[in-house]
Amino acid sequence: MFMEEQIASIMRLILLRLIKMDKWSGAHTALRNATKGLPSRYLSTSKGKKAVKKALKELTNKGFLLVKPSTDEIHVSLDSHKAREIDDFLQKVKNY
Prior knowledge:
The protein is of the alpha+beta class. It has helices at 2-20, 31-35, 40-43, 46-62, 83-94, and strands at 29-30, 65-69, 74-78. It has a single domain, classed as Winged helix-like DNA-binding domain superfamily/Winged helix DNA-binding domain (Arc Repressor Mutant, subunit A, Orthogonal Bundle). It has five helices and three strands, in the order αβαααββα. Strands 1-3-2 form a three-stranded antiparallel sheet. α1 crosses α4 and α1 crosses α5. The longest helix is centred in the N-terminal third of the chain and has 19 residues, at 2-20.
């Protein structure tokens, strides 16, 4: 249960960062930029990195995150067609 809440929290942070950066559909950014603001406990430990990877996979599976292969790195953006669902998810996770 704790791991699920942790992953949901990471997903929320990534979504909020991309919203703040205004990265919807056609506007994309490198994946490293989407995860740049995460707390160090997620980025510096192997358990944290695994949780971040799982959160990114979950965001992609839900269709919230669009993945675009670029020249030498992966770029991501938010799916504007899922804006309402993204907002609902953020509200739900906020109330944990």
